[in-house]
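Reading a protein record of the kind used here takes only a little practice. An example makes this concrete, so a full record is given next.
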Amino acid sequence: MPDTHARRRVWSAPLLALVLPVVLPVVLLLTGAAPAPSFAPSPGPLLVETDRGAVRGRAHDGYRTFEGIPYAAPPTGALRWRPPQPAARWTGVRDARAPGAWCVQLPAIGPGGPSGAEDCLFLNVTAPAGGGGPRGLPVMVWFHGGGFVNGAGDLYRPERLVVRGGVVVVTVNYRLGVFGLFGHPELGGAPALALADQQAALRWVRANAARFGADPHDVTVFGESAGALGVCAHLVSPASAGLFHKAIVQSGSCSTTIPARSLLPELGTYEPFVPEARTVADGVRAARRLGCDGPAGGVLDCLRRLDARTLAVPELMQRFSLVPYGNGLLPVEPRRALESGRFHRVPVLQGTTRDEMRVFVAQTLAAYPVADAAAYRARLERSFGAGTARAVGAAYPVSDHATPAAAWAAVLSDASFTCPALRDDGALARHVPTYGYRFDDRDAPNFTGLPEPAGLPYGASHGFELPYLFTMAPLAGPQRELADRMTGYWTSFARTGRPDPGPGGARWPRYRGPDSVLSLAPGAQGIRTVDARAEHHCALWDAVWPGVTSVR
């Protein structure tokens, strides 16, 4: 299968990052590790001896990069759908000056077949040029978004975090779609290999961080969208215990849920975490359709003989883009685990963007328009039922918004992202230091390449905070100042467990209630606390959707 990622635009994978499987039909028309050694200077700034062999990186202005480092064996052939195995040792010096292959995936934007390779379990290390000193620098491990059907670690250039924040950043590839989230009785269930890959990457960090000038006992996991769902999963997974010490969740809380028929009329409710039995049943049906329904014990052998391109079709990649629970990695549904306090006791920074759903609604308007107030009311009734629709319509009248489509996007943003994240903030804050944010720059650059329909500008949409942390799009003067502030908050949290403001910055209070959420926007008063629960009608959503009791 050809690997075409080098020719793609750097920002493509974050698009439609969490609910890509929901809107894709429209958009396409559109190991036990060795103990970490004590810190010692590297043989040279660009030559590092990892636990599997030496790698040579590349020097940049103020930082070094080491890319395409294998953290696990290629999950090919007999290792397809098996837990990640240790990478083979190598002799000599491995060239780490270019990224490794992306995992097999669907295009993020536009038509086209699958790309990438199954031999894809690589990670990338970006470290300051000057090393880390005797104690080592904090490590931030990034899990990319892409709806568990596309994306790659090397799409995210973290030099701002590294140079300004004084941290080491590791970005990770992990198996996607049918290769990472497949289930079948012959597998003993649905082992959530995408999450197992991420855990293997964290074990690699524990074994190798000190070799790059970092502290293996000071690891922050962070991710956006599907990557944030991965962080949520690690917060509640017993198998992730001890692998990280802080967590940042960006637009992908454990409670994220998107109402039925909200984006397309034929789609049911989107819940990113599903019972293992559902995934296994889907796997049995998929194997049968692929002609692999022979004698017991031979189905996986048959499936492993199939070419990757045969498996990497939209139907299978999308169907197996949901994370199964009820297994060894995720014994309990993550939101229920948070509610009952069954999660790792680490500080958490979590938030959303103000206009999360605008980019998704915009991509479905041609096929499923919200042309007027009557269409808006009909959409409310289809998704919530007549009684609830009246209450929601009263809280979100069309007259308060530029267009009916904008009103609908506001409904979905609050119901699906903002209020679920605030519920999770409350559950977390009962046990650990928690910090909530809302990204509010409605003039954030549209780095998607997708046109904005009349009456529905993207504003502060899903993923639009990413250029403020990674090098992805040009920013104007006040936006660059906001990017510097956000970089400071994120990296000070990684260093201390508190998002300290730095000189002249606005204090970020611990989450004591929804009025302690920090708004992040440019300008003199752009960074301030807001009552997010009141502004986003969360009392209503706690009562009617998704029907779980708010924990404050």
The chain is about 30% helix and 15% strand. The longest helix spans residues 404-429. Residues 230 and 353 are 18 Å apart (CA to CA).
